[in-house]
Amino acid sequence: MSMKKMINNILILAMAALAVVACTNEEGTVSFDSDRDTIEVGAAGGTEKVRILSSDEWVATVGMQSDGTPNPWIAVSPANGRGSVTCDFVIDSALTTTPRSAVVSIHNIATNKTQRITVNQKGYDYSVEVDNPNVELKRYADYGERYFDVTVRSNFDFKVEIPDSEKNWLSYDSYTLDLNRGVRPREVKVRFNWKVNNQARERVADIKFVPVEEIQVAKSDMLSVRQEAAEPIVPNTRAGDSLSLLNIANTMQCWTIWDSSTPMDTWNGVTLWEERMEGCTPDKVGRVKRVEIFLCNSFEGLPYEVQYLTAADEIYVFSNENSMLKSLNIGEYVCKLENLKRLTVGAFGLTELPEEFANLKNLEYLDLGSNNFQRVPAILTKENFPNLRALVLNAQQRHAVSDLSNTVHDMESLGGLLGEERIPEHLLTWGLDTLVLSVNYLHGALPTFEDYPEKWSEAEVMAADTLPVELIGTPKIMPTTKTFRINHNRFSGEVPQWLLMHPMLDWWVPFSLVFPQEGRSADGTKAGFSNAPANLVEYYTKWYPKKKLANSIEEDVTTDEENGTITK
Q: Distances from the Cα of 177 to the Cαs of 182, 437, 472, in angstroms?
């Protein structure tokens, strides 16, 4: 070995010896120490590693809070040991926006020496974050699928702020942000609901998440919602009618939807105006005159597009799935068809008519049968509908209940016009040609109209050779009514004189469609008239010996009790 190499080895051994001396005391033990005396951590917390250098037993303790209780947001593992060990300092997430600190003491049991490690943690900034800040929507989706969920992460209580101009199509459900452990961010799912876009323009809503209390927010995401535009409908055109019908069928989830590849005049249930038709004008030719819509599953009123059927004089809608479970408003859009003459919306689940319904001044026929009205809609008056000749409000029952005094169903929403204290007298004095109120829960006695100002006069009775003199002075109720049906309600008491002697009674098929009642009313009264005649021929010919009775004897007719209809 050369001298130079020997000298190098001696130097290396000397340096190693010095290193050993530096790490030991005079007894040859490891110096008590730690590899860090300060830990800086963010608000989210986490785990920090600390190396404890020792030859003896030691124990770690977390300093107390100002109130004398332990700091719960720091945990040391292991919290005691012998010799040198790497410890995990587990630091919880912050609870406030204010920074906090604590001291962890490492105590050497043998030497009574202590190493102190200070942990400093930042407080949370107030912030709100959205998982998907940009949402794109189609213009249409089936009812029940028109929603989207957004996950919001926040450490303050916020309110959702939708621009006022967009609230007509966008809304949100209630939510609860749980901040029971302070201002550390928490996630909450907010469900937004949207409506079909019927406009030929894109809709955009920029939504903010605004703090309930006044605080300084460091970061606040916005939610941008865009909805595609609808295909434009050209008003007062055949093409506009066609597109409207397709959209209506789609929106109402009809079981059968017309084929857009075929001409509209071949579509089932659609009648177009032709020159030879009464009331046709050049601008109506080829447009929709009448439309029938059957078998749908709608959860809303008649759709937006119905307002474009401006040439139609009749709309017939019938049979909405599970209609007895629904409580719908017919909606504002059909109310824009001021030239409509005949309207049927039956078995649809209606419980309301809007104020705008009075715009349909030209209605001559209105059939709202088999819906769920608890009361006769207040909008239905002679003043609002001066041209109305026929009103059908039969079968409004949600459920068939014979004894209303003993039922498990909610009486406040049972339908059947049960909310009426008695039959609305204005319906009987309206002057309608047809009034159908069969198969409902109307109850009590029929009005006598003793104080009704219009009476059968002597002059008009004497002028008609079939009217009996006993009719003079009797209330003149429904003198021109050709169809009157109140069968299978809960009426009781006496049949009033004006009805027993009515000149049209034989045309009303009374033993099928007037006199028969059933069940018990809510107060337990058994339904049925106490003085209803047993036989029409024997009874009625006594008053009208010169009149040839209408061909409506019971054996010549078939009745449908559920719908209050009759087939001769």
A: 11, 51, 76
The reply to whether omega before 78 is within 30° of 0 (cis) is: yes
Q: Please state the pTM of the whole predicted model.
A: 0.74
101-159, pLDDT tens digit by residue?
999 999 999 999 999 999 999 888 888 999 999 999 999 898 889 999 999 999 889 99
User: Cα separations (Å) of 321 from 146, 372, 562?
Assistant: 19, 13, 18
DSSP assignment, residue 140?
-
Query: For 352, how many CA atoms within 13 A lie in the half-sphere containing its CB?
Result: 11
Question: Quick check: helix, strand or coil at residue 332?
Answer: coil
Q: Assign 90 to helix, strand or coil.
A: strand
Q: What angle do CA 179, 184, 189 make, to 5 degrees?
A: 60
Kind and range of the H or E run holding 463: helix 458-463
Place of tokens 């059933």: 518
Helix (H) or strand (E) holding 292: strand 288-296
| CA dist., res. 468 & res. 543, Å (int) | 6
Query: Which one-letter DSSP state was computed for residue 511?
Result: H
Tell me the HSE value of 130 on the side-chain side, using a 13 A CA sphere.
21
First to last CA, the chain: 134
CA pair distance 296, 431, nearest whole angstrom: 34
Q: What is the CA radius of gyration of the chain?
A: 42
φ, ψ (nearest 5 deg) of residue 439: 55, 60
Query: Is the distance from CB of 261 to CB of 242 less than 8 angstroms?
Result: no
Amino acid at 483: T
Report the side by side order of strands in the sheet with 365-367: 270-272, 288-296, 314-320, 342-346, 365-367, 390-392, 434-436, 483-485
Lookup: tokens for 253: 């989830």
Write out pLDDT tens, residues 43-86: 889 999 999 999 999 999 998 887 777 788 999 999 999 999 99
The two beta strands, 186-194 and 147-154, are antiparallel
